[in-house]
Structures
1.
Amino acid sequence: MVPEKALPEIDSPTTGAHAPATDAWVEAVRDLFAPSGRLAQKLRDFTQRAAQQEMAVAVAHAIATRAILVAEAGTGTGKTFAYLAPALLSGKRTLVSTGTRTLQDQLFHRDLPRLTAALGVPVKRALLKGRNNYVCWFHLERNLEEGRFLEPETGGWLREIRRFARHSQSGDKSECATVPENAPAWSYATSTRDNCVGSECPHFDDCFVFRARREALDAELVVVNHHLFFSDQQIKEEGVAGLLPACDVVIFDEAHQLPDLLPHYYGESVSTFEALRLAHDARVELSTLGGDFRDGVAVVDRFEKTTRDVRLALPLTGTLRGTIADLPQSAPFVAALVTWQAAASAVHQALAAVAERTELLAKLAEKAKRFARALDTWQQAAPTGNGEEVFWFDASAHHLTLNRTPLTATEAVRDLIAASPAAWIFTSATLTVGGRFDHFRHQMGLTRITEKPSTAARWESPFDYRRQALLIVPDAIPEPNAAGHREAVAQVARRLATAANGRTLVLCTALAAMRAVAETLRTQGGTDDAPFVVLTQGDAPKETLLARFTTTPRAVLVASHSFWEGVDVVGEALSVVVIDRLPFAPPNEPLLAAQIARMKRAGSDPFLTIQVPRAATLLQQGAGRLVRSERDHGVLCICDVRLATRGYGKVLWSSLPPFRRSRSLAVAENFLRTLFPEPRETAAPSGVHSDGAP
Ligand code: SF4
């Protein structure tokens, strides 16, 4: 059985003396979450939960003592209000960072207004995203005027974006319902740090980017995302980097994502996409100067051609990634890389020669210089790497990205946190592995911070997993690498979906497995009279697929990585989650492979130190899709016998909530039949779980 976990578990005590006023304030936070407290009075659907109250008190302590708090709060605890309420009440300047822009929007537009109204604290708040989320008047107008686009539909989209921007307060593209977020037109209607002319811009007073930054500087609480937070620390673009020194409280929600993401933010990338954008901007700007600059345009044209040539010289088709050692050392590719670098240098020289003519030319010259340098570093890099960084590429059908990524960012993050006077709070439903915080704290450099008090605490989900759900690892399934495993997963999913009359989410670890399982379910699932409605990741945007899944009778959704997190279907529409195999990252993934090699050289065991903890976190996330409220019931099926037969399996299952467990598929089918005795249509609509709601 899964061992019981203490509630809450404090790894190390908070240090530092509290002034009486501080203690009184912490007690005020406790009262807020009491059964007859203000939140119970003001929020109609508030349910008092001891775990939420305790977490809020821990956050209040951390704020009062400017400490580090690592807080794991199981699903349904209400962690968002538990950290937001003390932050709002404290009156201190707060930065909240979420994992994605979607969560950023939810927090800002849904949770914050609701809570500030309940608390009666009119806190000035702001939402800040990366600059590529905001319409840029300067480039939108000039590209519309220039009118040369690769894609025929771009002109129409740009006119649509202009209509939107004229009536928008924020210029945030997520609010533009008429143009898809991934339309190529957005790259012509937004800015980069390299082509923004700042105070020289004729649109500066109406600029959405600078307006959002001004509002953020003026706000008491700012909501950002992890990508913006860390990439801005690197490029110091006066977005988040400008805010951080004045902040008293920094909160990371979905903090489990940070350890894997951080090295990428501290690296450097150059891409053919970026190069084409540079060429486009340079050509348009040079052409505004008139006929004298034809030579410069010719240099830019050559750079554009060499950019296309380098992808064509890569004798690989489809989407691929690998290290520098995997790149062909064939003459055509190496020659194309050398030519590309030389062309970037030539663009730098051509633009530098006229840089004094306009602010934009000066910025583009700088960009070309950085680009040429990065390519030069790539050319000099040894195929074996340098032991500290990994050089790797990512190739899609049309583009190539070359990356230089440090193997770890632990030191940099440690220094950032240690130097900041703020309280730092990291929270998520999945921060522990086997009940311990060691992996997260080590990866984040928190174990070596002596400048601040540091606490870690965990609060279990209020859900009764033993009663509400069943975890099965079918005993008759082949090992995941054995022949027939994929077919067996499809058959298990088919049987469970039959017992639940659809209502099934299948999470696969690879796209090929996802397609195979979906195909089997499509051809063999359900009955002739009532086949399953099989939805597959990629058929439509994620939100659209989820909406279809929750409203379509007999729906089965088969998905891969992007559905392991951020799926919050409350109610019986999602009653079965099938996971095809333990989610170990492929050991040949470039950064992971380099980390593994380094660990082996140092005599450590990379499997137990890196791969198992990562898989545990992802498995917890996938499993967390099943039970989203006290009323949810269902089956979690993990089609990987290693969970039960390998030594490390115990670390993985002990990281999961305390489900009732079985090895029998028949037991799971019977459990589902008790939930859904008669085949009937999906009755309860899904809903988004609100923090104050049961
Ligand atoms: S200031 Fe920069 S981002 Fe704003 S409109 Fe001008 S170029 Fe675009």
2.
Amino acid sequence: MPTCVECGTSVQDLYTKYSEDNIRLTSCDHCHQFADKYIEYDFVIIFIDMLLLKPQVYRHLLFNRISQTGHGIESNITRFAILLILFEVYIKWFRLERCCTQYNSIFIHKPLYYQYLYILALCILEFVVFHCCVCLALRVYYQNQNKVIRYNYISMALIISSFGKMLLILMVIWEYEQLEYSWLVSITVLASNVEALSVYLDLSYVKTLFIVGLGIISRIIAQLLFLRTTFVDIGLDDSPFLRTKWLSL
Ligand SMILES: [Zn+2]
């Protein structure tokens, strides 16, 4: 059932269609505002509202854009998730190249396909661990409550709200000297993850932040373990400072 983006109550429909280009938005009986104003909005405005962390836009995307009867991840969201992972690979590679050149690591002398597959494996691992740990934390949190959690929608909420990672491309275009600026993008992604999950689960920001925080800690631990077990293989074992650099990748 569609949802009013303003107050979150269910509505019968979002609009009435009179002809091909003539629709009338439905007003919500509860809050007396348009149930979903974003139906008529351009994608650019939707994107800006996502950046501004407006809960209405996340209700629109999570309740009214995604089919509420599916069991898996929608194909366009799967494609977006793949794009995010590939993008992360590119950014990690970009950082690593600078890092290894600075400390003369033999990793950059390995074949390109080896470097790519290594970073791709790391990114996929981080993605899977983050999603699984957030779902696990929610399962533990709701185990004594009579609430049905649809984990595929949790994953879709996390994927959609990770759009902020795309902003990292600006670092490549503008060639920042200090890669540490990326923490600003990480905070944007964290904030939008919390906003999306909070809206979807109707959970307070503090509790949602705690759950997403557990996912991030698990992702860092997974990254550490992955790097620890492969340091010798990639020739980074004799460069302790590089290890700490890797952690900020
Ligand atoms: Zn309403």
